[in-house]
Design a protein that fits this description.
The radius of gyration is 16 Å and the shape is globular. It has two domains: 72 residues, Tetratricopeptide repeat domain (Serine Threonine Protein Phosphatase 5, Tetratricopeptide repeat, Alpha Horseshoe), CATH 1.25.40; 50 residues, no CATH class. It is mainly α. The protein is built from nine helices and no strands. The longest helix has 15 residues.
Amino acid sequence: MMLDDLFAQLRTATAPAEIEALQSGIWQLWLTSGDTGLDKELEAGMRAMQAEDQGLAIKHFTRIIQLNPAFTEAWNKRATAYYLRGEYRASLDDIAETLQREPRHFGALWGQASILRQLGDYRRALHALDRLGAICAHFPGLQEQQRALRELLEEGRFPQ
């Protein structure tokens, strides 16, 4: 099934199991570059992340980006590795690259919202979640996060 078809179904999905299955199908397509060497490099970077070696993971993902800057998932995985290292600005930069290439990247939008919330930028965090809601209104945890951010903004508990 093609990516656009999966996203069309995701937009209207309401059951958690259906959402999970559709997201899984989308991830399978995202994780494939079409180049066996790059796919192996991506797998090596993901293994490094699982082993909590974010430095090595970043090296793998950077190498992929240098060889094929259009491979969206390399940007997203490097953003995740930066996030896990506490390098939020670098992570946000790579998330922006991810979303430039795939504006429907629900993982990147969720990560962006999480980082922005941690940085106290509640308006931009809510905007990221609203974008996510347009892709998948019933994304697990989305409505609770949106509600919490709206309450913070209404109470005026934000630095901006």
